[in-house]
Specification:
Layout lengths: L4 E5 L8 H9 L14 E5 L2 E5 L8 H17 L8 E6 L2 H11 L8 E5 L4 E6 L4 H17 L5 H11 L10 H13 L6 H5 L9 H15 L2 H16 L6 H7 L7 H21 L1
Parallel strand pairs: 1-5, 3-4, 4-6
Antiparallel strand pairs: 2-3, 5-6
Helix pairs in contact: 2-4, 4-5, 5-8, 6-8, 6-11, 8-9
Bound molecules: zinc ion (ZN).
The site of zinc ion (ZN) has 6 residues, from β1, α4 and α5.
Length: about 280
């Protein structure tokens, strides 16, 4: 669900690294004590290292799903697989998670889960609650992608995570986002505009509309082999060179794209929303 998850990137300072932790402890910052981290269970599942407040079985359906998400993300986006660990810190309930976030990351916007990238680690923090599966698919996707493409543009990062947060059987089709955007089109209050998304550089500035639109572009791009190849080439280029020109420029000049891309994306949203309505009718 949009806005529930958030991505926060620390660069150059790792609040979880032992040397930093001991340094901070020496200046008596109680929120950096390791005792409040989930640590009762630690299991490894592929690239994931799961630290939890409670016993977690390797065989748990969600753990298996998160593990297989690695190959889905890699194959869909044409990215290599990395062995860099993605740490998942799972809190037994929202109260304990909220207290941890308030202590360790004061000033953070309220989020059910979040992803932290530092110069030395990739970490996800989440509470075990009703929507933990969706949240963990979203945040773990960030981890898998960032392990190989650290400098992904924000809109694309979120669009990809929204696409993969759905159960696999949904095929990336986010019905709530499609319905939301289709409603905005009827109201006349929204138009697809990738350049507007590209201009947003802070996760705090992302609204529900932005998450939905970012998903929409990613879904549209992945819907045909030509467009999927274009996205894959772009990701490969960003991986090599973080200063790669924005995707919107490449899209505009790519051969075989519709003359009116805005109209094509609007039609895509309307078709998806129409399909959902038909499905609900039966
Ligand atoms: Zn996210």
């Amino acid at each position: 669900m949009a806005c529930a998850a958030g991505c926060v990137h620390f660069v150059g300072v790792d609040p979880l690294a032992p040397q930093v932790r001991s340094l901070q402890r020496s200046v008596a910052l109680p929120w950096l004590e390791p005792g409040d981290m989930p640590g009762r269970t630690e299991i490894t599942a592929g690239q994931l290292v799961i630290h939890a407040d409670f016993p977690v079985a390797h065989q748990h359906r969600l753990i298996r799903e998160l593990e297989s998400l690695r190959a889905d993300v890699s194959q869909t986006l044409g990215l290599p697989i990395s062995d860099e660990p993605v740490h998942l810190y799972l809190f037994e309930n929202p109260t304990r998670y909220d207290e941890f976030v308030a202590r360790r990351f004061p000033g953070f916007p309220a989020r059910r889960a979040f992803f932290v990238e530092t110069d030395t680690s990739l970490s996800v923090f989440a509470a075990w609650q009703d929507r933990v599966a969706e949240d963990l698919r979203h945040e773990t996707t960030h981890g898998y992608v960032h392990a190989v493409v650290p400098a992904l543009p924000l809109w694309l990062d979120e669009g990809i995570a929204e696409y993969f947060e759905l159960p696999r059987a949904e095929g990336g089709e986010h019905k709530a986002h499609a319905a939301h955007l289709a409603g905005r089109l009827i109201e006349g209050t929204w138009q697809p505009d990738m350049q507007r998304l590209e201009a947003i550089t802070s996760a705090a500035d992302l609204s529900q509309d932005h998450y939905a639109e970012a998903w929409c572009w990613v879904h549209w791009l992945l819907a045909t082999p030509d467009r999927r190849a274009l996205l894959q080439e772009y990701l490969a280029d960003v991986r090599r060179d973080a200063t790669t020109a924005p995707f919107s420029i490449r899209l505009r000049h790519a051969p075989g794209m519709p003359a009116d891309i805005t109209a094509a994306v609007k039609a895509h949203v309307q078709a998806l929303a129409g399909e959902s309505e038909t499905a609900f009718d039966h």
